[in-house]
Design brief:
By secondary structure, this protein is mainly alpha-helical. The chain has four domains: 3-96, no CATH class; 106-185 and 424-515, no CATH class; 202-413, no CATH class; 612-694. 44% of the residues lie in helices and 3% in strands. It is built from 30 helices and six strands. It has a two-stranded antiparallel sheet. A two-stranded antiparallel sheet has the order 3-4. A hairpin with a 5-residue loop joins strand 1 (337-341) and strand 2. The chain is globular, with a radius of gyration of 28 Å. The two termini are 37 Å apart.
C-alpha cells in the first residue's frame, strides 16, 4: 500500500490539526510512526500494527457516537477512507517518509503491452499506468491543432497562414520536430515563458499600498528573465544569479540585474510598525524562495512549528538568517540601485540587492512571530528534513560588501543533490505544457499538497533536466515530441467515467488562452503587433472610469503612442493597483504574492470586454482593414482570409454561409455600411471559441 499517496494525505487533512507535528492533543501525535504507536493519555494505542480491530483510531473514526467520533466538527470520514486506513493498519502500518523529502530516484521506463505507441520514455510511464487501469490513450491530434498548440505553448502567438501551409505540406517524419526547434529558437519563446516565471516571483514595477510608487528600473529584471530563457541559460545558474549574483566570483551586469529579485515584493513606505514591516518583507521573500524554488510552504513556520510538514520555527529562522543582512527596500538611491555597464557600452542603473556589510546581525527565533519577543539565537541553516548538515559559510574579508551567505544558500538550492529543486522545475515545465503539473499543487510539494500522479515520471524528468545541464529547451523538446503531448483532446466514455479529471493523462486537456495570449493573438492576427523587445514598459490606454478607481486617479499612469501600445502584453507597465482591464478579466496573476497557477474563470467581464470593450472593437476594425487590403472587396474572400488568420484554416461551408448571412443581415436589416458590417464580423471572429480555446 502506498502510504505517501493513500494514507498520509488523509492523516494530514483530517488529523494533524490536533494530532500533528506541533500539537499532541490527548497525548497523541500522528506525524511519525514512533509517536503514533505510543499509548495516548488514555493508555490505549491509537494504532496497533496488523490489528485494525484493536486500534483506537479506527474505532473513533468509525464511531456512530457524534461525541466520540473523530475528527470533531467535521463530516465523518467516508467508508472508503476508513477502509484505506483499516487496510493500512492491517498490513502493518508501514510509515514512509514523505515522497518529496526522499532522495530523487533514477527510475527505468516501464515495459508496456503496446510498445509501438511509445515514442520516448515519457510515453512508457504514461501508458503503463493507463494499461494498469484498463484505459488507452486518445488518438493523435490533427496536424493543425498540434501546430496551434505548439505555437501558443512556446511563443504565446498563433501560427501565421504561411507557417500553417508549410507544416501541412511537410510530410517528413521530423516535420513537427522542426517546428519545435524553430519555435524554441525564436525570440518570442523567452517572452512567453518569462511570463510564467514572473508570476512565480510576483513581478511588478510598483510597490503597492496607497501610493503604489514606482520601483526604479524594475523592467531590467523582466528583460533579464526573457534573455536568460532565450539563451537557454542553465537553471542552476539562473538560480545562483538571482539569489547571489553579486556574490559570484565574477559578477556581470546580468547577474547584478538578476538580484532585483529581492526588490520585487510589495513595500509599505509608511508602516505603522517599522520593525514588524521589516520582518514582513523578509517573510514575503522567504515565502517566495520556499515556494518558487523548493515547492514548500516553509513560511507557515513563522509563528509556530509547521502544522503539517516537518519544519520547525528553527528551520524558518535558520533560512531567514541567510537574508537577515539585506538592506531594506527604499524609494531610491544606492540602497536599491546600482550602476552597471550595459552590453552596448553604455552605463545605466539597475534595481538590485545590497547588504549592510560583511557582518550580519544575530538572528533569533521570534516567539509567536513577534519581533519584540526574541527566543534562542539561530545560525543560517537548511531545513533539517532536507539537509541536516550545517551550512558552511566562510568568513568574509574585512572589505567585503556582503556576508557571502546568499551564495551558500543558492549553491544548496542549485545542487543536483537537493531532493526538490529539479523536481519542482520539471513539474512546472510539464504544467505549462499540459495545463497542470504531475503534482497539481506546484508550489506545495509538502504533505498538505497533492501527491504526484506519476512519481516515477517526475523523477525521470528531474533527472533528465540535470543530465542535460539544467537546460530547459531540451526538456521542452522531449515533452513535445512524445505521443503523450501529441494526443488529441477527444473524449472517451469509459475514460471519462473512470478518470474524469484526466489524472492519468489519457487525453490532452482542452485549454483556454491565457490573458496575454488573448491580447497578443488579437494584435498578431490584425497585423498590428509591434515585435519590439526589451526596454521600459508602455502604458495601455485605460478608460477614465477605471482610472477613477485609484486613490489618486490617473497617478503614475502615462500615455504611450499607438505603436508602443501594440507591443506584447509582457511589456505593459506592471502597476499593482492598476491592471489592464482585459488582462484582469482573463485571470491575470495577482502580483502581490507568488502565483503557482492562474485561475481559469468564466465570468461576465470577459464577454463585456470581448464584445463591448473599446480595445476589442478598435482591433476588430484593424482586422477588417487588413482583410480589405489583402482580400479586396469580395466578401467571401474576406471571410476566407479572416479564418486563415484567426483559425489557421479555410472556412467550412456552414461557417461560410453563416458569415455571409450575418454580414448581409447587418447591412440589410440594420442599415450598416459594408465596412461597418465587416468590422462587426471581425469582432465575432475574435469571440469564436475556436479562436479562444486550444485543442
Amino acid at each position: 500500500m502506498d502510504f505517501a499517496r493513500e494514507v498520509q494525505p488523509l492523516l494530514a487533512k483530517h488529523c494533524f490539526q490536533c494530532h500533528g507535528p506541533s500539537d499532541a492533543e490527548s497525548g497523541l501525535r500522528l506525524s511519525s510512526r514512533e509517536s503514533a504507536l505510543q499509548p495516548a493519555d488514555s493508555g490505549q494505542a491509537a494504532i496497533v500494527p496488523g490489528d485494525s480491530k484493536s486500534s483506537e483510531l479506527i474505532r473513533r473514526i468509525a464511531s456512530d457516537d457524534e461525541f466520540e467520533r473523530m475528527p470533531p466538527d467535521e463530516p465523518p470520514l467516508s467508508a472508503e477512507q476508513i477502509r484505506v486506513l483499516r487496510r493500512w493498519i492491517d498490513q502493518g502500518a508501514n510509515w514512509q517518509e514523505h515522497w518529496a523529502f526522499q532522495p530523487r530516484q533514477n527510475p527505468t521506463p516501464p515495459a508496456v503491452a503496446d510498445a509501438d505507441w511509445v515514442r520516448n520514455p515519457i510515453d512508457a510511464f504514461i501508458l503503463a499506468l493507463l494499461e494498469a487501469n484498463g484505459l488507452a490513450p486518445a488518438p493523435p491530434a490533427d496536424r493543425l491543432a498540434l501546430l496551434r498548440r505548439a505555437h501558443f505553448d512556446l511563443t504565446g502567438l498563433p501560427p501565421t497562414p504561411e507557417a500553417v501551409a508549410e507544416f501541412l505540406a511537410d510530410e517528413s517524419p521530423d516535420a513537427f520536430a522542426k517546428v519545435v526547434d524553430r519555435l524554441l529558437d525564436s525570440p518570442q519563446y523567452g517572452e512567453r515563458w518569462a511570463r510564467h516565471w514572473l508570476d512565480l516571483v510576483r513581478f511588478a514595477e510598483t510597490n503597492s499600498f496607497e501610493r503604489d510608487s514606482v520601483k526604479p528600473h524594475a523592467w531590467r529584471y523582466r528583460d533579464y528573465v526573457i534573455r536568460s530563457l532565450n539563451d537557454d541559460k542553465p537553471y542552476d545558474q539562473f538560480i545562483r544569479e538571482q539569489l547571489a549574483g553579486d556574490e559570484l566570483p565574477e559578477p556581470t551586469a546580468d547577474s547584478i540585474i538578476a538580484t532585483g529579485f529581492y526588490r520585487l515584493g510589495v513595500w509599505d513606505d509608511e508602516p505603522a510598525d517599522r520593525l514588524l514591516a521589516t520582518y514582513d518583507q523578509l517573510d514575503d521573500l522567504l515565502t517566495t524562495v520556499g515556494q518558487a524554488f523548493l515547492g514548500l510552504t516553509v513560511n507557515c513556520a513563522r509563528c509556530h512549528d509547521h502544522k503539517i510538514d516537518p519544519f520547525t520555527q528553527q528551520d524558518y529562522y535558520g533560512l531567514l538568517a541567510f537574508f537577515h543582512n539585506l538592506t531594506p527596500m527604499a524609494k531610491n538611491g544606492p540602497q536599491i540601485e546600482v550602476s552597471i555597464d550595459l552590453p552596448d557600452g553604455q552605463s545605466g542603473k539597475a534595481l538590485a540587492v545590497s547588504e549592510r556589510g560583511p557582518r550580519a546581525p544575530e538572528t533569533f527565533v521570534l516567539l509567536r512571530g513577534n519581533p519584540q519577543v526574541k527566543g534562542e539565537a539561530v545560525a543560517p541553516s537548511f531545513p533539517a528534513v532536507l539537509d541536516s548538515r550545517p551550512a558552511t559559510i566562510a568568513s568574509p574579508a574585512a572589505d567585503a560588501k556582503t556576508t557571502g551567505r546568499r551564495r551558500v544558500l543558492a549553491d544548496w538550492l542549485a545542487s543536483p543533490d537537493n531532493p526538490l529543486t529539479a523536481r519542482v522545475m520539471a513539474n512546472r515545465i510539464w504544467q505549462h505544457h499540459f495545463g497542470r503539473g504531475i503534482v497539481r499543487s506546484p508550489n506545495n510539494f509538502g504533505q498538505n499538497g497533492l501527491p504526484p500522479t506519476h512519481p516515477e515520471l517526475l523523477d525521470w524528468l528531474a533527472g533528465q533536466l540535470i543530465d542535460h545541464g539544467w537546460r530547459l529547451k531540451a526538456m521542452h523538446r522531449t515533452i513535445m515530441l512524445s505521443n503523450t503531448y501529441q494526443m488529441s483532446s477527444q473524449g472517451n466514455p469509459q475514460a471519462l467515467e473512470r478518470d474524469p479529471a484526466n489524472d492519468l493523462f489519457w487525453r490532452f486537456d482542452l485549454r483556454r488562452l491565457g490573458a496575454e495570449e488573448v491580447r497578443d493573438a488579437v494584435l498578431a492576427i490584425n497585423g498590428r503587433l509591434n515585435p519590439q523587445m526589451f526596454g521600459p514598459g508602455f502604458y495601455e490606454e485605460i478608460s477614465a472610469e477605471v482610472l477613477a478607481g485609484q486613490s489618486r486617479p490617473g497617478d503614475g499612469w502615462g500615455k504611450s503612442p499607438p505603436d508602443q501600445q501594440a507591443r506584447r502584453s509582457i511589456y505593459i507597465h506592471a502597476k499593482r493597483s492598476l491592471m489592464t482591464p482585459l488582462l484582469e478579466a482573463f485571470d491575470l496573476a495577482d502580483p502581490d504574492s507568488t502565483c503557482e497557477a492562474r485561475f481559469v474563470t468564466t465570468q461576465p467581464a470577459q464577454a463585456l470586454a470581448m464584445l463591448n470593450g473599446k480595445f476589442m472593437n478598435d482591433q476588430a476594425a484593424h482586422l477588417a482593414a487588413r482583410l480589405r487590403r489583402e482580400a479586396g472587396a469580395d466578401t467571401a474572400a474576406q471571410i476566407r482570409r479572416a479564418w486563415q488568420l484567426a483559425l489557421g484554416r479555410e472556412p467550412d461551408e456552414a461557417g461560410r454561409q453563416h458569415a455571409l448571412a450575418l454580414i448581409e443581415t447587418l447591412q440589410q436589416r440594420h442599415g450598416l455600411e459594408p465596412d461597418a458590417a465587416l468590422n462587426y464580423y471581425c469582432l465575432l471572429v475574435y469571440n469564436l471559441n475556436e479562436f479562444l480555446y486550444l485543442d
